[in-house]
Amino acid sequence: MTLIRPDLDTLPAYVPGRSVPGLIKLASNEVAEPPAAPVLEAIARAAAGGNRYPDLGVVELTARIAEFHDVAPERVAVGCGSVTLCQQLVQISCLGPGDEVMFAWRSFEAYPIVTQIGGADVRTVPLDGEFRHDLDAMAAAVTDRTRLIFVCSPNNPTGPAVHRAEFERFLETVGPDVVVALDEAYAEFVTDPEAVTGRPLLDAHPNLVVLRTFSKAYRLAGLRVGYALTSPDVATALRKVCPPFSVSSVAQAGAIAALENRDAILADLRPILAERDRVRTALVGDGFTVPESQSNFLWLPLGDRSAEFAAHCADQKVVVRPFQPDGVRVTVSSPEENDTLLAAASSYQPSSR
Ligand code: PMP
To answer: Do 320 and 224 reside in the same domain of the chain?
Structure first.
């Protein structure tokens, strides 16, 4: 007998984007500006009541999310960031070893971690040659032990979005007995009209879970609040495994104010979308391969030079996110910050190894 379960020794650590004082952080897909002014005011008001526990049922925020997406509140489960909802999804769908959680690779690095914490088996399917999900290959890889599938659209860290038609075909092929989580953490940055949005598919697919977050477009990463839209049964199960009081009163108030001010907050994203095109074009002009991105980041598939490129950028005062040995993800930010990145990328000389 051991004090701690031995399989935790092999649990990969989540590697956060580094924050280094004085350096520009383009490593965590955050928006660089602080939360919007009315959101900050709501946060301050909630913080003043911080001696009290938050609303356990997250009633008002749930109602606002339901209203915004035009779904019944029973279809909404709010969590302490969407990464925690990913973990809750493993908890509600998998009993333990032998049960499989499938996702494309490379994708969001928390998926293997939450799978392993849940005691289930990881099943990965490679992205295609354009760094997109290969949904046909994923559907073909489903076994009778597959309990949960994460589909990340746009895909972190590579950028492309899954298209509506291919995702609908995928849902039909997979069938109703596997939970399919469509992780839309970056939905607000999508401009491709063919990209999937999960909300219209919920009625026909009770096994579908749409994950959203307030961390990215709404600029509330530090508050930790995300939500799932799904069938009432799945939402109820997600709420059952959510530890009590996981969503703080500050997070609830901030998220409500963010929804109230949504139009203005999302209007602030427009320059980022223009910058996404400009930075990508400049990087391609410098000879980098950069897949088309529907998000607020770009992927440089630099292979085993990823760590070297990231170290070079850090020397040039920019922190990017290497995923050795696959590539480097860079957040698209303000024109000035992006210019610093572009200067660093232009001056990068691969070592002769
Ligand atoms: N899904 C994806 C694809 C992400 O990139 C992230 C954050 N990096 C999350 C979920 C988690 O977001 P949060 O927990 O901050 O809501």
So the answer is: no
